[in-house]
Amino acid sequence: MAVTALRRPLGLNSLVMLDRRRRRPTATPARLAVPHGMKAPLGCDAVAVPAAFGRRMLDRLPRVGCVYGDGAHMWWLVPSDSDVAMEWPAPAHYTSGTLVPDARRSPGLIHRPTGSVPYTPPIPLYLVLCGMTGARPCWARPVHS
């Protein structure tokens, strides 16, 4: 004689918990570290671009802060909240808190600026990216009411 188990429907709390577990990363994401001896008084976020873009951007920026790379991408440290009121153009990716998504280890530091501040100024970085991608800066777009 076969015994059948009673099955109860899952409640909303159980479904939400299962979804969160499914979405939780399996490993702690890598993080870009501010080099020893440097201070980040404004916090740090990062802007990632494909390495082919990144190499061309280095010569176009008036000041380059800390830049990290892994061969496929390059990351620039910028002050926290440098994404407020700006839509970074594709293929750039803005990351809060210097997290490097989908990386098993942190990219290596490929440029360290002189001085004690690790930032690349975000507005020139944004403008160079817009120029390279053909995107219009968000403040140059028409306003719709």
Structure description:
This protein is of the alpha+beta class and 145 residues long. The protein has 3 helices and 7 strands; from the N terminus they run H-E-E-H-E-E-E-E-E-H. The protein has helices at residues 12-23, 51-58, 122-133, and strands at residues 30-31, 45-50, 67-69, 73-78, 93-96, 99-100, 108-111. The strands form 2 sheets. The chain has a 5-stranded antiparallel sheet with strand order 5-2-4-3-7. It has a two-stranded antiparallel sheet with strand order 1-6.
Compile the SSE list and pairings.
Blueprint: H1 12-23, E1 30-31, E2 45-50, H2 51-58, E3 67-69, E4 73-78, E5 93-96, E6 99-100, E7 108-111, H3 122-133
Gist?
22% of the residues lie in helices and 19% in strands.
The strand count comes to 7
- Class by SSE composition: alpha+beta
* Uncertain residue ranges: none
Individual helix count: 3
Biggest sheet: strand arrangement: 5-2-4-3-7
Radius of gyration: 21 Å
Mean pLDDT: 85
Largest sheet: 5 strands, antiparallel
Estimate the global geometry from the Cα principal axes.
Answer: globular
Distance between the termini: 71 Å
Which series of helices and strands comes N to C?
HEEHEEEEEH
Name the descriptors.
alpha+beta, five-stranded antiparallel β-sheet, two-stranded antiparallel sheet, 7 strands, 22% helix
